[in-house]
Amino acid sequence: SILGHLRWLHPVPDTEDTQRADRHCTPGSSNFTSVLVSTSKNSNFLTNTTVKPICIVTVTDASHAQAAVVCGRRNGVRLRVRSGGHDYEGLSYRSARAEVFAVVDLANLRAITVSTDEECGPTAWVDSGATVGQLYYTVAKTNPELGFPAGECPTLGVGGHFSGGGIGMMMRRYGLAVDHVVDAKLVNADGELLDRATMGEDLFWAIRGGGGENFGIVLSWKVGLVKVPPTVTMFRIPRTLEQGAVDIVTKWQDVGATLLPRDMNMMVILQGRQAVFQALYLGRCDEILPTIASRLPELNATKSDCKEMTWLESMAFIGFAGNTNTSALLDRNIGFHAFFKVKSDYVRHAIDKEVWHKIFSWLSMNGSGFLMLEPHGGFIGTIPTGATPYPHRSGVLYIIQYITSWPTGNEGSTARNWVRNLYNFMGQYVTKSPREAYINFRDLDIGENTVVSDVSTFDSGKVWGRKYFGGNFRRLATVKGMVDPTDYFRNEQSIPPLLQGY
Ligand code: FDA
């Protein structure tokens, strides 16, 4: 996972869990800085010049969130909502522009209740401040044959992660996290507490992938749980350029999305002169090896590459770079604190071998830069584009993340230039019109809202919004126009309200 990779590159000590006993803290409070940085993952946004909140409200009950909205509106203070603090641009706890705002921090709202006796299958209610690692652990400890399809980094906050979709190692079998959300509790811009029945289907559609911070504060989510086998197989196979990495990656592009079974998810991490093929198969090694041997013989995968384990152990294996200590999934402070910049693309037509040689040349220029390629296809591609706001479904072969990091605050410009130049180079080989991007891999380079008469404009939002949401952007803006027409919940890339119908 990115977590494993970045931790390996910058092993900075973890921040202690902060004293969250104070429900409100202001810059004058002794623990303000420790609470502010507690779950902030990108050190870029913890500098002296960062625009910080005037107050952090750590809620433990729905009524606190409702009061924050009512009080914020009355006093002209906007809110930024933070669950796990992983936003790539730090928008859950800082503003890119001069702005007076408070943070509503949900880190202490993290109950998880699993029900295995429901008529329509097993479900769980999970609060937004829980991490996905806590969710995996709680579900599997209740019943080891149950799991949940979400992201690879165990400390991801459920609130922000589900708000943007949630891709992960089981998406080819089960789709995104939001494909399994069946109910939610939300505080809207009027401070009302709503569930699916009272919010209505348009708003319920929008919060399942339309991006965090747009429509209110989602306090908790009811999700359907999925079946996992008693034994799964993981492998991590590194191949250098000399061992044929370019040929294998070139072929993997179609094989990973269209020729491997849905139970198999094989992602690729490219760094330096090497490609690492990391896979989760929902079954035993002997069942999948013959398929890999016939579809991707160039990889030369053997039984000794396979590691069989429980599904829960595999979630730890992926998150902690091979360590299968499952209780670590409960540790919300295990994260890294690095300086990094990420951009994303989707690929619908396989990229030629010659271009992969060039991409490896780019990687040779930046030792800490890497690419993560995650296959789509399978179940995720069968869901209609408009079923949820996440539009990158049928026909997508894989998503690319371009990631670069650096060790100290003043060393970032070379790394940032590298990732931006590589992204420009890749423009000719990836999706176009729009050039697609993933909202959960937030990137302010692709556009920011313009605010006119205190409302974000639809035209400025369209520039980045079509990339994240394709044809679903207009519907999202219409829902925003219905539920928050004065644009109270907003940030630099929030859905602008559209007051005419879609
Ligand atoms: P954070 O608290 O920063 O919130 C992110 C956004 O959502 C902000 O705009 C925030 O205001 C809003 N928000 C948060 N909680 C909300 C709530 N309860 N109601 C309304 N709005 C809310 N993604 C992925 O799909 N698969 C993956 O495997 C990974 N892996 C990964 C690894 C690492 C190391 C990082 C840093 C990030 C990822 N991501 C990812 C991206 C991740 O899904 C994305 O950053 C999520 O928004 C993180 O949610 P958090 O709650 O942690 O962030």
From TrEMBL:
UniProt entry keywords in alphabetical sequence: FAD, Flavoprotein, Glycoprotein, Signal
Protein name as annotated: FAD-binding PCMH-type domain-containing protein
GO terms, molecular function: FAD binding; oxidoreductase activity
FAD-binding PCMH-type domain location: 49-228
Cofactor: FAD
Species: Panicum virgatum (Blackwell switchgrass)
The family this protein is said to belong to: Belongs to the oxygen-dependent FAD-linked oxidoreductase family.
UniProt cross-references to PROSITE patterns, sorted A to Z: FAD_PCMH (PS51387)
A Pfam short name: BBE
Keyword Magnesium carried by entry: no
